Amino acid sequence: QVQLVESGGGLVQPGESLRLSCAASGRIFRNAAMGWYRQTPGKQREVVAGIGTAGNTTYADSVKGRFTISRDDAKYTLYLQMNSLKPEDTAVYFCNRLSRATWPQEYWGQGTQVTVSS
Predict the structure, then answer these.
(1) pLDDT tens, N- to C-terminus, the chain (118 residues)
(2) No. of H helices and E strands in the chain?
């Protein structure tokens, strides 16, 4: 059983904010670059933000300046602060190691749904 539990999603209006959390096992989280991904029906999962073990971050162009990824190594928890949300941010959001981007579904958690709609 994969120990990745995403939470914090919900229904918000455009321009509002959400903070996602991902509780991971130490085996997955420790000493690993981690990322937030999102997926919409019929599309491949895409990386939206990544963070290395030294705290270095990367973002997809579509979220740069609006989303902030962070990690708490003591709690094996990954966060994604999402501000100025847009309808096109609507998706199921997942977390995982960046090295697992193409791994099959059994290596992923359930994700958390984010819906941005007026």
Answers:
(1) 779 999 999 999 999 999 999 999 999 999 999 999 999 999 999 999 999 999 999 999 999 999 999 999 999 999 999 999 999 999 999 999 999 999 998 999 999 999 999 9
(2) 1, 10
Closest CA to 99 of 54, 46, 49, 33: 33
Please report where in the chains the tokens 């919409």 appear, as a residue: 40
- The three-class DSSP label of residue 99 is helix
User: Token pair 């989280």 is at which residue?
Assistant: 29
Distance of CA 20 to the CA centre of its chain: 7
Rounded to an integer, what distance in angstroms lies between the CA atom of residue 59 and that of residue 66? 10
How is the chain split among helix, strand and coil, in percent rounded to 5?
10, 45, 45
Residue 50: C-alpha distances to residues 13, 18, 65 (Å): 25, 18, 14
- Do 71 and 55 form a contact (C-beta atoms < 8 A)? yes
Whether residue 63 contacts residue 18, with contact meaning beta carbons closer than 8 Å, is answered with: no
